[in-house]
Amino acid sequence: MRYQISGKQIDVGEALQSHVKSELGETVEKYSQRPTDANVIFSRNAHEYLCDATVHLSTGLTASATGHATEIYAAFDACREKMDKQLRRYKRRLKDHHRERSEPVEFADAPMYVLAANDGSSDSEPESLQPMIIAELETKIPSLSVGEAVMQMELSGATLLVFRNEKSGGVNVVHRRDDGNFGWIDPTAM
């Protein structure tokens, strides 16, 4: 597994890096036999240290966790415990899903745009109904089943996931509803 361990305005020493590699590697190997890479970022917020970890699995799924504490090692340990809990909780779903995924998840490239927000300071009508594009980026859209999309959304902690449905081939959306349930938008079903 490849590791990228860095700090935002923090010097991450060799001792911390070796601690992260051994502990996180042990946690991930326990639940996933084929992790590909891990990205761990340490930062500081006032008196607390923050640790954000993202682990990419060979199936295409991504697990992420965040921990914070007054000591940097304790922040990592809190993050690792959350990652352990996530992977343990979803191990059965990752392994015994409706069908075993033999190939990695395919990703399709798609354009992504950042639009200017309406400042809301004036009550007058905007000059044009066309939004101003601030940035043009590229994003990846995974090809997943609906169950895998919900699982990926839960693993990453996101509130919304856009994906290509493996069954229909159309672009679908799963989202977390205010009542705690999940919504699934499938425009090809209409």
Automatic annotation (TrEMBL):
It holds the Pfam family Ribosom_S30AE_C. Keywords: Cytoplasm, Translation regulation. Associates exclusively with 100S ribosomes, which are dimers of 70S ribosomes. This is Ribosome hibernation promoting factor. Residues 130-183 form the Sigma 54 modulation/S30EA ribosomal protein C-terminal domain. PANTHER family: 30S RIBOSOMAL PROTEIN. GO terms for molecular function: ribosomal small subunit binding. It comes from Albidovulum denitrificans. Belongs to the HPF/YfiA ribosome-associated protein family. Long HPF subfamily. GO terms for biological process: negative regulation of translational elongation. It is found in: Cytoplasm. One of its GO terms (cellular component) is cytosolic small ribosomal subunit. InterPro entries: HPF/YfiA_ribosome-assoc (IPR050574), HPF_long/plastid (IPR034694), RHF-like (IPR036567), RHF/RaiA (IPR003489), Ribosom_S30AE_C (IPR032528), Ribosom_S30AE_C_sf (IPR038416). Its main location: cytoplasm. Required for dimerization of active 70S ribosomes into 100S ribosomes in stationary phase; 100S ribosomes are translationally inactive and sometimes present during exponential growth.
